Amino acid sequence: MDNVIHKFEKLIEYMMALALAVMFSAVFINVVLRYLFGSGIAASEELSRLLFVWLIFMGATLAVGRHSHIGFDLIQRKLPSKLRILCAVVSHLLMIYALFLFLEGSWKQYNIGWNITSTVMKYPLAFMYSTGLFASLGMGFYIIRNLIRILLNNNKAHLAGNVIVTPDQMKENN
């Protein structure tokens, strides 16, 4: 299972790199055309906006999976183990609920978006709103997986306040 998840994460990373490259190229070409020839590509801005939104939501989803979002765990570090686990379970349940609300709203916007097209490129706005579906399902998967690990006392579970030691730090301490 971890191998499939790793390959999927790599695919997302490649898609993010491609989106960034297309955004850079579209904006750069548009700037050159405007300054040198007084014209530009009208779709450049709209394409860049769509790709930027996808880039943000793909990156946020990966960040949840890698536990690399910014967090404040000063208080949790001071709690006894049982209370830290309880805090983690409660916070995971709250995040799942919030993601459910996000999924529900994104689904409504997605359905509405099929009937509305973008101004220049004329793509259905559902493509833009599908980012919410992707992010809520992806983040939900990671959070539910970690919640199950916490409840099963799995050593791969991530608890806020745990000090993560990298292999390089381990070498320095020896």
Question: Which features characterize this protein?
Answer:
mainly alpha, 174 residues, transmembrane, transport, TRAP transporter small permease protein, DctQ, transmembrane helix
Main sheet?
none
Oligomer: single chain
Q: pLDDT below 50 for ≥5 consecutive residues: which ranges? A: none
Please state the structural category: mainly alpha
Number of strands: 0
Give an overview in words.
The chain is mainly α. It has one domain (2-163). Helix content is 75%, strand content 0%. It is built from six helices and no strands. The longest helix is centred in the N-terminal third of the chain and has 36 residues, at 2-37.
SSE blueprint and pairings:
Elements: H1 2-37, H2 43-65, H3 74-78, H4 81-113, H5 126-151, H6 167-173
Brief synopsis:
Its main location: membrane. This protein is 75% helix and 0% strand.
